[in-house]
Amino acid sequence: MATDTQQRFVERALRRKKLFLALSIVGIMIAMVLATYYGFRRLNDPTFPIGSHAVIVVLILLNSRQNLRQYRFASFIEDCKKKGI
Question: pTM, whole model, 2 decimals?
Answer without folding.
Answer: 0.85
